[in-house]
TrEMBL record:
Any one Gene Ontology BP term: maintenance of CRISPR repeat elements
Transmembrane helix listed as a keyword: no
Lineage: Bacteria, Bacillati, Bacillota, Bacilli, Bacillales
UniProt name for this protein: Type I-B CRISPR-associated protein Cas5
Keywords: Antiviral defense
Record Pfam families: Cas_Cas5d
InterPro entries: CRISPR-assoc_prot_Cas5, CRISPR-assoc_prot_Cas5_HALMA, CRISPR-assoc_prot_Cas5_N
Provenance organism: Salicibibacter kimchii
Amino acid sequence: MSTILVFDLKGAMAQFKKFDTNSSSLTYIAPPRTVIAGLVAGILGYEKDNHYEVFSPENANIAVSVIGWPRKIIQTINYMFAKNKTDLNLSKGRTQIPVEFLFPSLDKHELTYRIFFRHADPNLQYDLKQRLKNQSYAYPPYLGLTEMLGKISWIEEATCEQITADDPIPIHTLSPIEQLKENSVQFNVHSDQLFYQKERMPRFFNGNRYLQETMSYLIERSGRIIAQPKEKYFQVQYQGKTENILFM
């Protein structure tokens, strides 16, 4: 039995740019692992590009749930056309780029992502817990782009334990497809909101800020899929409920 920090990242809008798009800036439906690592690093006060090894998958366990399915809207943004510093006087004019944004569903007023985080260094995890509880952030939280400031709601430090599944179970977080047993996903064909999405996301950068690994995740609109993990999964107990999570 160990502990894990549970908190919500909320905001009016978000943009988690897909790494494999070019002319149009499309967004993931949820923050990738790299975004959450950067968020935590900012809260703790790490300088830019100095946190990749600290929050590598070997050191940090991260999982995320989508609470309320977001809407996607594409807007065309005016950018300054600049290829070098001499173009920053607008001498090359402007260029328009389509950008995809996330907004909350019409019955909600903000996006909400539930984050599960634990670290191999207990001192780092304790420092983060205190900062989250006291809202004492070195850098303000945001949702993908710095212009989209967010807020954090502390939930609690929950208990978690590793369990082996002999049958399909509900999984409440983004599910790495390679961690699911083949043909074990159970589809509720009687649901009128049957919607599954696959997202290929960056997993972590190395110390030179090169993308080290990507991973594909399965997401379900209600925030829960039913499948059998290949190996042990984590069961988290908080606020009187139990949720099953897989780390990204």
